[in-house]
User: Which sequence fits this backbone?
């Protein structure tokens, strides 16, 4: 709710027959930088481009907000999500050590979207 209240444009859901099957949450981390906080698709509905559609919508929101880049974190073990983001043009820029509660590292990924 905090994300929705502070940046409702960055809170997008994908519905099928009015049931939410996926969502993405993003916000402007600074004037220049869009941040993706969370993205997930119902496992039964993955691999149908719902994730791609949500990500594209989010990128549009950041373009309209005049961001020059988008940054996100992905679990080191989550190779599926890393490949997914790479297919959408993101590349690795570093590691955030022990980023997650269980002590797992995050890979930092970035997409340049220009102005
Ligand atoms: C990552 C995630 C959001 C992707 O969502 P999705 O709806 O499955 O995404 P898409 O369908 O657009 O693409 C996913 C994969 O399916 C493949 N795909 C898409 N359409 C396809 C089709 N018609 N036939 C076969 N494969 C297809 C894509 O090539 C892609 O493969 P790859 O990324 O392994 O190369 C989803 O897997 C998920 O919710 N994962 C769990 C949560 C998570 O990891 N979130 C990210 C944390 S930062």
Assistant:
């Amino acid at each position: 709710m905090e994300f929705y209240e502070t940046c409702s444009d960055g809170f997008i859901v994908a519905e099928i027959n009015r049931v939410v099957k996926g969502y993405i949450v993003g916000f402007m981390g600074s004037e220049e930088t869009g941040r993706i906080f969370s993205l997930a698709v119902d496992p039964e509905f993955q691999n149908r481009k719902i994730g791609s559609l949500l990500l594209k919508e989010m990128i549009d929101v950041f373009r309209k907000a005049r961001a020059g880049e988008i940054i996100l974190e992905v679990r080191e073990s989550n190779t599926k999500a890393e490949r997914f983001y790479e297919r959408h043009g993101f590349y690795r820029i570093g590691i955030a050590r022990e980023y997650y509660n269980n002590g797992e590292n995050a890979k930092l990924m970035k997409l340049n979207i220009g102005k």
Remarks:
- The CA atoms of residues 29 and 48 lie 30 Å apart.
